[in-house]
Amino acid sequence: MQRKIPPGFEKVVKGKTILLVRDRYKDQILNQENVFQEKITEGEVSPEFSLLKGRNLIPCVRIKGSNERMIVKHYEHGGLFRKITRDIFFGDSRPFRELSVLEAASQKGLQVPEVLATRVSRIFGPLYKGEIAYKEIPDSANLLEYLNRLNEKTTKEKATLKSELINSLAESIKKMHNSGIYHADLNMKNVLIQNVGEKIRVYLLDFDCSKIKENLTLRDRLSNLARFNRSCQKWRAPITSTDKLRFFLSYSEGDRLTESNLRKYIRKCSHFHWGHRIYWKLFG
Fold it and tell me: What is the pTM of this model?
């Protein structure tokens, strides 16, 4: 299927490989195409790389000719069958779809990573492997790490920073939802907190399989927030019931639909699913 190339990007075809590269980074990306590779292990990393650890090892490498760095995500399946399907995908191209969502989110004023390039390498017929490269967001940590670091602060500092964080997080997620974007994997590790002087910025990450709709329904919003709440429970985040209530109040402020359904939000997102607990125990 012919895809529309987002403004500011150029399509480069090399044999069975298709890249969409941001214009102003084209030369650097094409000269560093070796960083777009299959899943790597720590023993395979060259000196120019550093690694970020999530579900998988993610390389972070300096962009040639600049002081900036890029993070390269190699697409892999998640869930129960990830050890079987691994990194081979069928049909449509997930990297290009994620690029489209991220560019749309950026245009709507959301704080998201800047995409530098996406790559799809065809294996056979409709089967492919893919990568996406983002510009690194410096001086940042994911939400779980940031909250854990707050425990090192004094009680007064912790309370002030936590209050600012809750309001900023609620505003960011609300803005995403009001823009019609449904995040397919809204969890604590897909929220990045950046320190900017004495202020913080909230970035939303990893829009793989996310969708853009004309309007999100109440059910869509509940589902997204419930998923986010499950991640808080899964990783035993240092947040209290009062913190969650403050988040909901901030999220729903000025919105009649959410304000009138506040109890439903809280009840839905506080519900603990035993099925998820068993799954986490077995598969992590």
Answer: 0.86
CA distance 238 to 23: 42
276 burial (CB, 10 Å; 0-12 / 13-18 / 19+) is middle
190 shares its domain with 279: yes
Mean pLDDT of the chain: 84
- Element (DSSP H or E) covering residue 50: strand 49-53
pLDDT digits (tens, 9 = 90+) for 229-241: 889 988 999 999 8
177: which DSSP letter? H
Residue 83 corresponds to which tokens in the numbers above? 């050890």
Rg (CA), the chain: 20
Cα distance between the two ends of the chain:
36
The residue among 135, 154, 188 that closes a domain is 135
Backbone angles phi, psi at 70, to 5 degrees: -125, 150
Q: Is the pLDDT of residue 178 over 80?
A: yes
Q: Which of 135, 153, 177 is the last residue of a domain?
A: 135
CB 206 within 8 A of CB 99: no
Kindly state whether residue 231 falls inside one of the protein's structural domains.
yes
pLDDT at 2: 58
Backbone angles phi, psi at 62, to 5 degrees: -70, 140
Helices (H), 19-126: 26-31, 82-85, 94-107
